[in-house]
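> tool_call: predict_assembly(chains=three)
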Amino acid sequence: MREPFLRPLAAAVLLPAALLTACGGESGDGAGGGASGGSTIKVGVLHSLSGTMAISEVTVKNSETLAIEEVNAAGGLLGKKVEPVVEDGASDWPTFAQKAQKLIKKDKVATVFGGWTSASRKAMLPVFERNKALLWYPVQYEGLESSPSIFYTGATTNQQIVPGLDYLKEKGKKKLYLVGSDYVFPRTANKIIKAYAKANGMQILGEEYTPLGHTEYSTLVNKIGEAKPDAVFNTLNGDSNVAFFKQLRSAGFDAAKLPVMSVSIAEEEVKGIGIDNIVGQPVAWNYYETTKGRANDTFVKAFKAKYGTGKVTSDPMEAGYNAVHLWAAAVKKAGSTDPEAVKKAAAGLSLDLPEGKVTIDGPTQHVYKTARIGVVRKDGLIDEVWSSKEPIKPDPYLKSYPWAAGLS
Amino acid sequence: MTAPGTALRSPALRARLRGYALFAAVALLLLVVAPLALPAFRLDELAKYLCFAIAALGIGLAWGQGGMLTLGQGVFFGLGGYAMAMYFKLHDADGDLPDFMVWSGVEKLPALWKPFESPVVAIAAVVAVPVAVAAVLGALVFRQRVRGAYFAILTQALAAAFVILLVGRQGLTGGTNGLTNFYDVFGRDPEAESTQRTMYFVTAAVLGVLYLAARQLVKSRFGRLLVAVRDGEDRVRFLGYNPATVKTVTFAISAGMAGLAGALFVPVVGIISPSLLGVVPSLELVVAVAVGGRYALAGAVLGAVVMNYAKTEFSEQWAGGWLYLQGALFILVMTLAPKGAVGLYEQVKDAVARRRTPERPVPAQSVQGEAA
Amino acid sequence: MDSLLNQVPIGLSIGAVLLLVALGLTFTFGQMGVVNMAHGEFIMAGGYTAYMLQDWAGSQAVLAALPVAFAVAGALGWVLERLAIRHFYGRPLDTLLLTWGVSLVLQQAARDLFGAPNVQVVAPGWLTGRIEVLGGALPYARLFIMALAVACVAGIWLYLSRSRPGRRMRAVMQNRQLAEVSGVATARVDQLTFFIGSGLAGVAGVALTLIGPVGPSIGTYYIVDAFLVVVAGGLGQLRGAVIAAVALGMLNSYAEFWTDASLAKVIVFAVVIGFLQVRPQGMFVLRSRALT
């Protein structure tokens, strides 16, 4: 046989390099599209459109594009249309980092809306910080972060976990069992829960983590049955929730017998779990499709008109929608899309959004949010049963809570 | 590649010279043309593909030449990557704890991390750890004559277990987030364009050197023995060789390449995380090798670069479609062209050669035509 | 001590799930050397069959879906065998990659047909209760799965040992060439084996709707475990598959009970790798003098 080694190598490298070069060519003219000059303002929308996270992130992408359309329908920004550049993070954190780089450097976007998992945010963070660019992150997360390059429009722990605990305490639940998927958010959340429990005379009977995508919960249900807690605090993620609730219920634990407070189950997930398996269980968020208010009526109506009446709206979707409107308002106020100017204008900015009045907290770049506890109803939507009286000031490091000293 | 010279009478010599000329052309393209023509972030992307190409080269060696279908190459990629990243993290922390340990509630630097304070240890570990793990695993498994599909499934289970372990020990490994946010890569800012450019050159150079070394290995006695083991393990044993040793050594070499690839990946992309190392990414690497052509080392490189490039491009256009395309491409390649692109190219070339000049070697022009 | 005993039925029920997902593979892998990575997607097809049948069978869909899913998944497997796999005999590693491509296409197809989120399959009312065993609650759903696993094993055993096509199947499994020269139409047997093996995956998929999610990615959750059972049990060995599934189920349940779910998985993998050191061909081996 002849040596087939080298020639194909040439092809191996020539072909993609040639293609890359072709792509590189466009970037020359792309420079005008961004903040300076051009007829549109480009913004990046960076979510997983493929892979395991696509199921959740696509919905946020949808609400963000809806908000961008609304901004354009209202006359655009600084006399220009806003043009979304949608990219796929592919549920792979390094891809998020590289796509962020592409959006900033090639497309020269004014800002990026994106991410869902903490891992994707952590992967993008250095890219935004070093390039002095701006990211709007729309999902509740584990706190302990406050990057000057990120605006967090989802809840931090004191706007979701802590109110969830307050609610359980109010209901007289003293003995808790902690169940979570094995990653950063549940582990951090549980650290906070343990500190809270210690300070409030509650007892933690067990703390269990299962791998992401785990579907076998009989042993865990057995352990919970043995421990006899008053309530479970659930930070499981994704498909694991389906298996957990199905197996919990078939072992005889329903909402009346054992309340399970969940912080990662929204309207979207209820159907897949099976409404029967989760009906009556409490969840903690800042927004539900049923939340009252004119801004929410508009949002829900517009969303269903665009994506179908069968679609529901949920907290992360609303936070993504909010992010776009908050950014647009800040740009208007600043008269520029320059990240520094936008940041300055955003501090203290307040808007009426689907979840109510939302104000940006300048120092932390998080937002004031109303905490809401809901209960899953028979039709799969969620009814609010408790809410904080006013929007809670974001406190990502829990500095204002004495019991949380030493956590961060 | 000019007209067949009068001085070069031997076809073999001519073929070899042409080979070197092509290698030089590729090197020129990678080291001069691409850096000049591509904007920084595209060059960075190309560097990422080249990292995968290095790992793919190892798979080409183990699978294409040695017949060991390893579905756990992500493990070795990860070991190399984490070894490198641990050093960067410790260097950034400068005596304190790395950031993720703080928020994971770790109070004292774990003993496992201690050695990685030294860059020398870290860089040595990049290759040594994967090689050692593969050598031990290989020695155990191959001696017991676990092979074929059994070996494939075992390595796949290894990848699955490795990821679960990485994710589960968050205080030690950073969990799902992995290790990221490095400020100082050997005295440079990893996000700076100049650093990315340098990293690109380093990666391309490593790939080139490893490619030549692997090729030399394949052509050596050892390489022929390896192919013999692939094609008839029992027969090799009857001839008095120990196939287990041959396989173990090759497996360890391929693991070392994967480790090196992982280590380069860290400064190039700025992150190492479990999402890169599990069952699916490991399989995707193998897929790339199969599409490129498993029996030729260049096929492995070709496959890794083209498939990863296609993935990036395609997911920008039509996200869900990538799975269809990848799946369909794969089914087609396996059924119609199991030797991959390189095999297809060889077939076409042979057909052309047969039709044109039944006896003489193929003119270089047709080669160029195919490559362009 | 109570809870220690509790884990016995749990271990058995995990074993039953493992057995159901692995049973079909034992034969496609064992007889034909086909490493079918799309087996997980046949499981998925079973789950979606139950989902589709809800429209007319209502809450009894799970029961109605068992035979239908067997046929649907079996047909999928048969088509796969006809179109592609039959060209691959003697190249087991290539089938692994081929079927992986198939599994990607099927996953995305499910996403486009049924949407990315999980769908709801309502369990029949008579499966919602539970009984007390050894001080713990054993849900009817789990009992149903165990019974189904036993029924499948019994069915396969009868088929293999008592029926004519079953005998042919064993003949091909033991020595393909010899069977062929003895007048067994191996191609036909292969088709049938693939139909049955894939059909069993469909049945498993229906059963899994009772305890887990029904969505495009469920196949990926079970495939690695299923292969471990087959590898540990020995190719084409019904006995081996049963024992391996139960043993791994027990190991899983106790390892998780004493440690945690993550570590339990790692322990299971480690034990299988260790076990293969002792018995590289699995628990039971088809004796053969042939060289590979």
